[in-house]
Amino acid sequence: MKCPRCKNEDPSWFYKGSKGWYCRRCISFSRVLIEEEMKPIELEEIREGSEEYVLAYPLSEAQERIGRECAQYSKTSDILLCCCCGSGKTEMTVYTIAEALKMKQRICFAISRRQVVLELAQRLQEIFPEADVIAVCGGHTDRLQADLIVCTAHQLYRYFQVFDILILDEPDAFPFKGNPVLHAIADTSCKGHKIYLTATPDAVLRQRVLDKEMLCLTLNQRPHGHPLPVPAVRIGPTVYLFVSMILWILRHREHPRMIFVPTIAKANAMGRILKVLFHGYVCTSKTADRDEVIQKFRSEKAGLIVATTVLERGVTIPGVDVCVWEADSPVFDEASLIQMSGRVGRTFHKPDGDCLFLLKQKSLLAERCVRKLKEANRSCDA
Ligand SMILES: [Zn+2]
What is the pLDDT of residues 326-372, one digit of tens each? Predict the structure, then answer.
């Protein structure tokens, strides 16, 4: 037996109900009977002219080159678009999307966070004014078809063998990270090729490139051409780190500042301590009005926010400086460290900024993160 959706073949996941055998491995997405033939949903033809695009800013030379290569090679191969934080990965997929629409192919952009789905759908609608672009995510599932679909990873189960091109944003992060069911559902939704967008590919993706199962396109330069921020590292006991952090907050008082901490408990505790001295916010996965908190922080010229890794990706705050408290904590992996430092210097107007890692003891991961960023910068100079 094999589940037609998540490809599970492990018998312990199969149960027999009144209507027949079904798979419990992917049951959270809806019940799928094993005998049931999954059918692609009926989709309307893609409209003429939907491939016309308008870019607010021209792409940089490097973005243009990688974007063209991606459009060309994704016709015949899966692609790992391994591009540094803030390199404009979305913009680089514009040619691929345009070519697919022109050939009346189905294309989908799958992202982890609902808020980002809504934002990206709007951005893509502005880029492709003639196309019908929809966001499919919690609260927006009445309509499933359009010329261009932007959805959360969890909505992919609605599409069976539909996409000629599936773009997966941040496949190494939540909810894809360590989630084989979701990866299988993504595979099932796509009959053509996939494009993985990430600055920090995990071991599985890297291995697939080594095995020549997919092609890797790399870009280590941001559109504004400034180097990636390399974190300064301070190591010492908690008191020393705390004083360093306070001085850092004061030194950068004219900019927005993000302080990343390893756990929710530490975020709340740090928020309480800092409140005595500064006005600021706390944001964790338990923050109920998270989008509102981010919006408030964003609206302040020099705000302060304490956050967990919940904000390590998908957030662009112009001119932000970043401090990572206990960067040696096992909670942070190398990808987290690179992503957190990658919040700095992302925009044309504020292409530089400061990043500080505070460690209780030496950490190989932090060292590797610093080395990788330096290497990426050197590869651009060459
Ligand atoms: Zn299944």
Answer: 999 999 999 999 999 999 999 999 999 999 999 999 999 999 999 99
State the Cα–Cα distance between residues 259 and 213, nearest whole angstrom: 39
SS3 294: helix
Q: pTM (2 decimals)?
A: 0.90
Q: How far is the CA of 167 from the centre of ligand 1 (A)?
A: 22
At residue 255, the 3 state secondary structure works out as: coil
Near ion ligand 1, which residues have CB within 5 Å? 3, 5-6, 8, 23, 25-26
Q: Which residue has the tokens 């409140």?
A: 275
CA of 165 to the centre of ligand 1 (A): 23
Q: State which CATH number among 3.40.50.300, 1.10.10.10, 1.20.1250.20, 3.50.30.10 fits the domain covering 61-219.
A: 3.40.50.300
HSE of 96 in the Cβ direction (CA atoms, 13 Å)? 33
Does the domain made of 232-368 have the CATH classification 3.40.50.300?
yes
| Centroid of ligand 1 to alpha carbon of 29 (angstroms) | 9
What confidence tier does 112 reach under pLDDT thresholds 50, 70, 90? confident
CA atoms within 13 A on the CB side of 40: 13
